[in-house]
Amino acid sequence: MSRKPAPAAEPKPKQIRKSPEVRSAEILAAAGRAFIRDGYAAFTLRGVAADVGIRLSTLQHHFPSREILLAATLADVLGGWGVRLRAVALDRTIPVPERMKRVLQVNLDLTLEHDTGPVLWELFALSQREEFARRFAQASYLDFRRVFTRMMAEVRPDLSERQLMAHATLIVAQTEGLTVFMRPDDPAGLPVAAVREALDLFVDGFMHVLMAQAPAPA
Length: 218
Known about the structure:
Elements: H1 20-38, H2 45-52, H3 56-62, H4 66-89, H5 96-112, H6 117-127, H7 131-155, H8 161-176, H9 178-181, H10 192-212
Helix pairs in contact: 1-2, 1-4, 2-3, 4-5, 4-7, 5-10, 6-7, 7-8
């Protein structure tokens, strides 16, 4: 009895070679999700490679070390934060007090967003142990404070850069405390609407005092 010829093997689908830019974007997207899901302690190159569906060696071609990938991930996830805040702060068609309110409201929005808020917690923890994360945090918060110094300088050009930075540092320090208190498990259970109202009142009070101390026009 003659054997039936074996069925021809189906041709393997050709793998589409992706550009380095596209592959890097895929890796960063997966790294961001892993950072939020697992935290920095459980963040590994191998785990991110598995999430993307690529070999570890392929990932390392784009991001050779864990530190390099973590730094790129932080910049990718949080980089848009500063862009959004500066876009509001630089709009001189809006009075400074209103701009300050909008900046703080946008900052609150980003603190509450799932894709950005949890990253701040991880950044705070990571910056206590890793120099690259500490430098990233310091640079980010310097930029955030400068958002406020520029706005205040428009209405109080008599203040020195050191004075403006001191005011901005206090504003940012108080604002960033919301990161701690706006967690879903906060025992006070603060409603977001009440916090938004309090932020606007804070700006009203701050600007009233700031302008009351301005020198009289010559």
